[in-house]
Records
---
Amino acid sequence: MGGSAAGRGVRRGSNKAGAGAGRGLFASAPRAARRPRPPPSMQCFPSLVLALSSLLGALALLQLSLYLRVPSRYGKHEERLCRPRGRLPARCAWFLQELPSFLVPALLLALRSPPRLEPLGCRLLCCLFCWHYFYRTFIYPFFTRGRPFPLQLLFFGTLFCIYNGFLQGYYLIYCAEYPNDWCTDIRFTSGLLLFLLGMGINIHSDLLLRQLRKPGEVTYKIPQGGLFTYVSGANYFGEIVEWFGFAIATWSLPAFAFAFFTLCCIGPRAYHHHRYYLKTFTDYPKSRKALIPFVF
């Protein structure tokens, strides 16, 4: 019996040892710490692009219907007897209004995963759209000599810049697909030339308008020189050409919708400027057109 007990003790010990050895050899290794998953990248939803672009086109028609006969009440068309109470200095207002058009696409680009400028759409965005709004945000406001800007118009203008900045940036960064030889395509090259031409006309016309006033002046004078020789709204004509060039270069529905909105928004304003000049100045050139040289 003693031997049997000893045998049972040895067998129990060996069983425990074997069990321990088994657990040591075949037990699963401790799990490595899981790496945090990167945040989900934004995806392209073509239906969203179509919906936002269609809404932008509808807003363009609404803008045209509202201000074709009656100009928007700011600047030279602001009635003295019913000036809005809340207003900001022109430099501050222009900076705040245009800033989202630069920041929103830049933020979308930064959130892109991986954050690189490999797709051609991203390069188009940075070189054209953001270039324009960098000028409009960080250069133009600090040289303008316009009158104080109504807060109501500033609010709606800022909302539009957020909306359009998102639409153009979202499409070009997450949705646009171009062939490798797109930079040699006639649509890109012709659109780029139109964009540069329009931006040059716009900047030069703004410079001529600033030179009409001395610091502190708010009176209006007849603009002279440059494309103002032919049209009253040379700066507006340049911006319209610029954005239609952008639309051709990117060949995208959002860009064409934005170009159409620009035409419907500032085209009527050029027409009302022309009527204002003819009514205010008896020596205003009769051969000068409103927006399109020799045509309208």
---
Amino acid sequence: MLQAHKFQDLEDTGKALVEFIQSSQPDRLKKVKVEQQALFEKHLETKKMVTEILKDMAQIEESVGQRLLDMEQEKKHRQSELENLEEQLQQCTAKSQIMDSEIQFLQKELESLRNNERELETLQHEVDEDTTEVIPTAVYVAQVYYIITKIKWEYNTEPNLLRGVHYGPDLATPISIDTSAHSRCEMSDQLWGFVSTEW
């Protein structure tokens, strides 16, 4: 639109020059000169205005571009922090699960120890209270050994055979030892091998 207006001004000026040449009037020449000077000044003013607008637009674009870069940098920083927090959360969750498993295992071990303690207390109570019934020492000792070793012996076997069953935490293992073929030390080592060392 500005360019069309400029062309119109130039066209008017051209027509005025033609008329001036045809009329050869000095006043007309002065008027054309004044109009041409005004047009030139208007052109300079417009050029200055457009230059200022372009400069302002460049500054705005630079400011917006810098702001976008800053926002992108902040976004990356926040994303990195979020990933770190998620990783820490996963580590804490894994540690919590391990601790829960350990607690459950310890609770089971504690319950097993309490059961053993109750069995020993019950056995001791029966021995203490049952004064009218005489419990043979060998049977009492065998019961105490069973609680400790988890080995249940068979008593109606041949004199030279030791037979029984060891009740482990996962499975029961039969025991059969020929006492005539092994020394007392070997038999003792073999039997103590069944006893768990974990308390």
